[in-house]
Amino acid sequence: MELILVRCAAAEAAPGTLRGQAPLRLGSTGFAALERLAASWIGPPPHLLYCSDLRRALQGAQIFAARFALEPLPDARLRELDLGQWNGVDFASASLRHPAAWRQWNDDWIGSAPPGGECWLDLARRVRSWLQGLAAGGGDERRVLVLSHENPLRALLAEVLELPPAATRRLRIEPAHASALRLAGGTFEVSYLNSPQFLLL
């Protein structure tokens, strides 16, 4: 199995916005960036197209769906980190509304959650569940394209590479960039990371 991961492009939001699971639209710049990435595809087309069910990811998935004549398969487990009451709120407002929770979350983002949201460990569990389900589905010859967000993709890579949560922030995942994994002998191997275009596997 080949697993090709794409981070969704920039959404329409003011600078400093905590995007999280806010229902943001994909901006024109984001559409253009994903169209450029899609145009760089090489090799056989994907067999499956999974995506986050957030609005901006569904919009981005349509670019790849049109190119490959595939129906996107939205999955809530591929959503961005849920920031609860901070979804779509700017940094300054979040820190003023809930100063204690803001300090705790910044000190311990792995195990602490924003008010009404989830912590990193929660995110990692749902991403792991998605990956395990995909691997258990068989089809070692499948090529699977996934459009998700920065933190779920970091969690997925950390799971594959057996990295501790604290190390995930060292994984650079830019908007409208691609990474790729190959499943061989029951183990995922990293083919490439954070590329502005698709590469040969």
Features:
201 residues; two-stranded antiparallel ribbon; 6 helices; 8 strands
Question: How would you sum up this structure in a few lines?
Answer:
The protein is an alpha/beta fold. It has helices spanning 28-39, 55-68, 91-97, 99-107, 120-136, 150-161, and strands at residues 2-7, 17-18, 48-52, 73-75, 89-90, 143-148, 178-184, 187-195. Helix 1 runs parallel beside helix 2, helix 3 packs across helix 4 (99-107) and helix 5 crosses helix 6.
Can you put this structure into words, describing what you see?
The chain is an alpha/beta fold. The chain contains 6 helices and 8 strands; from the N terminus they run E-E-H-E-H-E-E-H-H-H-E-H-E-E. It has helices at 28-39, 55-68, 91-97, 99-107, 120-136, 150-161; strands at 2-7, 17-18, 48-52, 73-75, 89-90, 143-148, 178-184, 187-195. The chain has a 6-stranded mixed β-sheet, with helices on both faces. It has a two-stranded antiparallel sheet with strand order 2-5. Helix 1 (28-39) runs parallel beside helix 2 (55-68), helix 3 (91-97) crosses helix 4 (99-107) and helix 5 packs across helix 6. It is globular, with a radius of gyration of 17 Å. The model has no long low-confidence stretch (mean pLDDT 95).
Low-pLDDT sequence parts: none
Could you report the average pLDDT, rounded to the nearest whole number? 95
Radius of gyration: 17 Å
Beta content comes to: 15-25%
Number of continuous helical runs: 6
Largest sheet: 6 strands, mixed
DSSP helix fraction: 25-40%
Count of distinct strands: 8
Backbone shape: globular
**Structural class determined from secondary elements:** alpha/beta
Report the end-to-end length measured between terminal Cα atoms. 11 Å
Q: Please list the strands of the largest sheet in the order they lie side by side.
A: 4-3-6-1-7-8
Q: Could you give the order of the helices and strands? A: EEHEHEEHHHEHEE
